[in-house]
Automatic annotation (TrEMBL):
Molecular-function GO terms, alphabetical: nucleic acid binding
Domain of life where this protein originates: Bacteria
A Pfam family hit: DDE_3
Protein name (record): IS630 family transposase
Ranges of residues in domain Tc1-like transposase DDE: 175-316
Record's signal peptide: none
């Protein structure tokens, strides 16, 4: 049995397919056709290609009958799926439920436990890999549990609106500055992340003694320029806080200062309030348990991540230098800060005021 005689153009086309096709099935069939056109017997072609003789005969027969279309693979649909959209949605619903609420003696799922429950209850019989793919396609991912704290501030809505108004429309007569404390700054090894050779991470000592006390950092973020100002002191009493405000006041002698800060008792000290009234400084307090409204918290998170995590400073002077170097580098790349929480749920008129 041989393939029909090929025209010169057909022969060149078969050779090109056999040599350049990226589909293995198509290339293999083209080689069979080309070998048969050279009058090689079916048995020899089967031996050279490591296939069965019926396969070679079928390829030759299909090519004689259908031409080059016979070289293309005819993919079948595969085994029918064991799940339908309704079943996949049910699996995702079970995964989102707490196992305790379904009567199981554990509080969280693992992939294996979820698979056992589905099989034991006769819901569906699929592999763990298929289960993983169903959860991924359904938008169900493995995440850490987070906490939240409710704000009991009766003036939550008014205070939040005031802070957001200062962010969105800074007053023309002054500057908006976010103020807060960062710390306590201990001397201890701090876990961090970095690029290291595989399975060769940097290691820090585990035992340590804090023998040099702690320090505290006062920070002020100017939203107009994005610059971060700071002072590191041994204590954070109202006297140190007032001294920091005095340094901020000296930076913009002709502007009124709008300071956004939390409800720490030092910020509400009588001496601090009287000084602010006398020096054109308005204290704008965020609602209770709502420090996330203070934009400087983002800067403190970055400071901790990039300047402290992964370090093991042995003295406060060494640690203070590291903090100062980072802040100076940061200020060199700073720019005006705008668009606070754009698109966030806190911008919705029906946002629950008792949820912070």
């Amino acid at each position: 049995m041989f393939v029909r005689p090929l025209f010169p153009e057909e022969g060149r086309r078969v050779a090109r397919i056999a040599k350049t096709s990226k589909v293995p099935v198509r290339a293999r069939r083209a080689i069979v056709v080309m070998a048969s056109a050279q009058r090689q017997p079916v048995g020899l072609i089967a031996k050279l290609m490591q296939v069965s003789e019926p396969y070679v005969r079928q390829v030759i027969h299909d090519f004689n009958e259908h031409g080059f279309g016979a070289l293309d693979p005819k993919w079948s649909g595969g085994r029918p799926s064991k799940t339908d959209p309704k079943m996949r949605e049910r699996i995702c619903q079970i995964a989102r439920c707490c196992p305790l609420s379904l009567g199981w003696p554990f509080s969280t799922w693992s992939l294996s436990k979820l698979w056992d429950v589905l099989v034991l209850n006769g819901i569906v019989d699929i592999s763990r890999e298929t289960l993983r793919q169903i959860l991924k396609a359904g938008g169900v991912s493995w995440q850490a549990t987070k906490t939240w704290k409710a704000s009991n501030d009766p003036d939550f809505a008014a205070k939040m609106a005031r802070v957001l108004e200062l962010y969105d429309n800074p007053p023309a007569d002054g500057r908006v500055v976010c103020v807060d404390e960062f710390g306590p700054l201990n001397l201890q090894p701090r876990a961090g992340r970095g690029w290291f050779p595989r399975r060769r991470p940097n290691r820090l000592r585990a035992p340590y003694n804090r023998t040099q006390g702690v320090r505290h950092m006062f920070g002020g973020l100017d939203l107009a320029t994005g610059l971060l100002y700071y002072r590191i002191r041994d204590r954070k009493r109202w006297t140190e806080f007032l001294a920091f405000l005095t340094s901020l006041r000296a930076r913009w002698p002709g502007d009124k200062l709008y300071l956004i800060l939390d409800n720490y008792s030092v910020h509400k000290r009588r001496e601090v309030r009287e000084w602010c009234v006398a020096n054109a400084v308005e204290l704008v307090f965020v609602p209770a348990y709502s420090s996330w409204l203070n934009r400087i918290e983002c800067e403190f998170a970055a400071l901790r991540y990039f300047a402290l995590n992964g370090t093991d400073h042995r003295s406060h002077d060494e640690q203070d230098t590291a903090i100062g170097n980072y802040i100076r580098w940061r200020n060199q790349h700073a720019g005006p800060i705008r668009d606070f929480a754009v698109g966030s749920k806190i911008r919705h008129p029906d946002y629950l005021t008792n949820v912070a």
